[in-house]
Amino acid sequence: MKLKLLSLMMLVCAAAPAFAQDYEGDAAKARMQFGPLRVNPSIALTNAGVDNNVFNSPVPQSDFTMTLTPRADMWLRLSRSWVTFSAKEDLVYYQKFVSERSANSNYWATLHVPLTRIAFNVRGAYLDTRDRPGFEIDARSQHTQYDFGGSVELRLFGKTFAGVTANRTQINFDRDQLYLGSDLSHELDRTMIDAGLTVRHQLTPLTSATFSLEKQDDTFHYSHWRDSESMRIAGGLKFDPQGIISGGGQVGFRHFQPVLGTVEGYDGLTANADVSYRALASTRLGVQMMRDLQYSYEFEQPYYLQTGVTVTVSQLVGGPFDVVGKWGAYTLGYRGQIEAASSLLDRTDSLRLFGGGVGYRFSKGTRFGFDVEQQQRISDAPGRAYAGLRFGTSVRYGF
Questions:
Q1: How far, in Å, CA of 295 to CA of 292, rounded?
Q2: Listed residue (151, 129, 156) closest to 142, CA to CA
Q3: For 129, left (φ over 0), alpha (ψ -120 to 50), or beta?
Q4: Contacts for 43 with CB less than 8 Å, ≥ 6 apart
Q5: Exposed, middle or buried by CB within 10 Å (0-12, 13-18, 19+), for 34?
Q6: Which residues pair with 110 in a beta bridge?
Q7: What is the CATH number of domain 16-398?
Q8: Could you report the per-residue pLDDT of 11-25, keeping only the tens digit for each?
């Protein structure tokens, strides 16, 4: 029931043994096997309930909604190499507001080739969606995203690895997708190319320390005055999914320099983390944190610094019953053009979300739940503040 965040952290450089363990462990959980191919299909019905502010507007409009999500994850082992593939469809239904219905596709694939002292990874992803592209834009605007990249990592010493990474991302909005008078395609269509160097040291069998240096070039297809160059330096930790702590995160510094001098630059702290902690088999704590620049659709405020955290707690309370609680807080600190004249150039919007739910687990991979979530944005800009409540049932079934 939560607004999807399109910013996804990918720690792409790991040692050949670490990658093999990750793929082997994930593939072992698959429910179906056809020779060397393992498949984990599932289907979920989420958000089957009421959204009392469909358009995130100051004047709420309510409707019944639900989302049906079939998904399949696949692993194919070829000698020592692994091919992984995931396909997911979100079929979104609104009863009254037909314009908000959509079918959203998300596909990604990776090829991992481990050799004696070197490992290669190639990955690609495709997203075609009408989901909201972040906390800022409230319209469900059709857009596509293509990602293609790879990495090479070499074992230098027993537990130390060095690598290079490269990635290309292209984002395109459909033409004539307007939001508050702005053409999203004209303002936000862009290509991002980044390349970097990485160093990783295996601290323990389940924990590794990472260091990265990266250069990123953002080129806009129409609004070239938004073009920019960035340098990043970051360090962090990565935890094996099989451990009590899983996921990882990085903290670093970003030097952001627009190509034209009409847009203010940025030098400051960035962070990105998605970490889960599992206590015994009954409690799970998840923390998602981010601090980084995001491009805005607004002409006079071309980008903003998004800072925030979401905390989720899941607790078994007896037998198959569980309870879930969620809380999140984010700020969007806008940066304006140097020569623009506006009283809202450096405004800060705030978002708060909290919710919870109860669930009943019939078996492994099958859960029925009832969830409630409220989200609110506070802003000095006219028409930008809103409050919304969603509640309904969800069913997840693993074949």
A1: 10
A2: 129
A3: beta
A4: 68, 69, 70, 71, 396, 397, 399
A5: exposed
A6: 84, 123
A7: 2.40.170
A8: 333 333 343 346 777
